[in-house]
Amino acid sequence: MCGILAVLGCSDSSQAKRVRVLELSRRLKHRGPDWSGLHQYGDCYLAHQRLAIVDPASGDQPLFNEDKTIAVTVNGEIYNHEELRKQLPNHTFRTGSDCDVIAHLYEEHGENFVDMLDGIFSFVLLDTRDNSFIVARDAIGVTSLYIGWGLDGSVWISSELKGLNDDCEHFESFPPGHLYSSKEREFRRWYNPPWFSEAIPSAPYDPLALRHAFEKAVIKRLMTDVPFGVLLSGGLDSSLVAAVTARYLEGTNAAKQWGTKLHSFCVGLEGAPDLKAAKEVADYIGTVHHEFHYTVQDGIDAIEDVIYHIETYDVTTIRASIPMFLMSRKIKSLGVKWVISGEGSDEIFGGYLYFHKAPNKEEFHQETCRKIKALHQYDCLRANKSTFAWGLEARVPFLDKEFIKVAMNIDPEYKMIKKEEGRIEKWVLRRAFDDEEHPYLPKHILYRQKEQFSDGVGYGWIDGLKAHAEKHVTDRMMLNAANIFPFNTPTTKEAYYYRMIFERFFPQNSARLTVPGGPSVACSTAKAVEWDAAWSNNLDPSGRAALGVHSSAYGNQVKAVEPEKIIPKMEVSPLGVVI
Questions:
Q1: Does domain 2-192 have CATH number 3.90.1150.10?
Q2: Active site residue 2
Q3: Residues that bind ATP, according to the entry (predicted)?
Q4: N or C: which terminus of the chain carries fewer CB neighbours within 10 A?
């Protein structure tokens, strides 16, 4: 993984331009502290800042084909690179890097090879034979990427806004699952799964197929030549990630290099719900557990740094990014270079508490599709940038292409929340891992109610942020909010406060347009707010805003969700996964 920056067709091959590209590339140095490089071919520049994880000794970039006519700078992990190398017997590889296959696949298949890649990636490929280039981003947008255009006719590509916002006339987020070709001068979608059309699937629920698909997704991500760990909040998603990793780590190449003892990490305010649950899970699965505490003041002190790094003014993203940002610094100080994390499950399975109010399976499924499509603007952005601020990579098995294919093909009737039948949020995932003979997790953890990360680190966290914003944003300022910020006008003092900081770092109109907006309750899309008339008066991204659902909802207006009924025992067949 690394930070990439490319300037293409700028009509300037001078030393001064090279110095400028190097200067901008250094703005991404936090993403890749291990090595930096710049390749220039005429008026095209490919720069990178490398975080070395696979083949740290020889995998420096840019990467080339045999005669160096094709150059690639890439931020990513290609999990099936060994299989792809076998499909390229007539090619000679210069490094052991997993990304070394990209230039050679292009030689064989032209621009139509991207769907062959199983992994997360953003890359720029320059073909010096005809001075053309292509840019591509992974299916869901796990890696961050932006594209910009200069007045001189240049095209700019950067892993972060700060690499191009000062030099482009217009810039925007590069759409996930797309490829941009200089020959066509337009985007085209390379990732076209059935769920993208939002058609309602009808496949029956097979718990073992779902379990096996997730286990394969976790196992393939244990590709490493450096130390790693797992983020463990004690919630369902991170606990399953940790449990599966711990169960299958032994026998992998990662274990041969770094041992079979998995390290887990958790962050929270003193007494936070996550800390207790995470410690219990860690003891149960046998990890070496690291618990980090922070105070509300620690978080407040980090707000400006976090907004600079994550490049958004979205309230829920900032709330959750701050503890993750603080934890990532601690993790990196221990010598760990990447972690496995649980992002994506709530979007795929309708895990957010507002899904309790989905009126039917059609709207339930369509909302999950909308949530997955928007992940690159929210949780993927948070997980990528708050960790990479300290040169730490996050891998997310729930967003594996094959796993999403299996999970999104399930008839959404099985995902619907029906408390009277003992089916709480993410019931299909919980049941898939409810193994009586070889349990993955304690039963009460497997059926723990959803806590959004910004809530689970401590309920006092969000209340503290709101109180801090109250001190800096007056009622008079809010009266003028629509005039000061006509686009995505902040409706709360907390949102106004974050927006002021963002605009100071990124004042361009293009920058503010990269951030999504609209009404939301408990992380819903604007469309799902329509599911409950009461929500329109309680628009807050916290899970506690799901009145009538969350056991600690604002105002203590509701009772806790009823205990789940006993789930019938399932027969277990062999996994059938080669480790």
A1: no
A2: yes
A3: 231, 267, 341-342
A4: C
